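Open question from group meeting: does this chain pack into something compact, or does most of it stay loose? Before anyone orders reagents, we agreed to write out a predicted structure and look at it together. Recording both the input and the output here so the notebook holds the full record.
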Amino acid sequence: MAWRVTVPELQDQLQCPICLEVFKEPLMLQCGHSYCKDCLDSLSQHLDSELRCPVCRQWVDCSSSPPNVSLARVIDALRLPGDTEPTVCVHHRNPLSLFCEKDQEFICGLCGLLGSHQHHRVTPVSTVYSRMKEELAGRLSELQEERRKVEEHIGKLVNNRTRIINESDVFSWVIRREFQELHHLVDEEKARCLEGVEGHTRGLVASLDMQLEQAQGAQERLTQAEQVLEQFGNESHHEFIRKFHSMASR
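Structure tokens returned:
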């Protein structure tokens, strides 16, 4: 016939009500409910030999609880090779199958029922593990998103750096070319100005040279006339008077 439950669902039904782990050496009470041998031993050490079943609250005798052989065989058939037992509680020697949300530490089922964690919020380790795995996945997703944003920012910075360097090279080339053209224009204007000054200077100098030449000619003629007059002044009275009018007109 077909199975009506899956193996994981069946495994959930095979958990001890005290430690919330799969039964280990299960013992069956008179009421029909089963518990791990270590869980019942630890529970009986803290209570009387007759106690109430934690599930149905009937009075039972722990000392006359036989092993649940059929249940143990089913568990052995479901157990995978290499499964390791969880760490046990140092107080009750039961598996640390629960997690105290308040104290943030692993506890066993008896710690949650009888110990200092009795009124604390406790959660099965498997549930806490799944919850923390989901939280870790969320944190990892957030980190990956932040890393993606940082990588995009780095890419923009690299692109901006490359763009600025390229633009700087273009601007430098344009500036050098413009200044070269300015230098060429300045050199042409300088040559034109120098040529104009030199041409103007040559014209003035030529004019002055001509005037100087004329003045020197006049100076020479005046010197000659002065010498003639000085010689004329040495003439005798009669000669001086006789030649004076012709000399003066000259």
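Observations to bring back to the group:
The chain has a mean pLDDT of 81.
Residues 7-86 form a domain with the Herpes Virus-1 fold (CATH 3.30.40.10).
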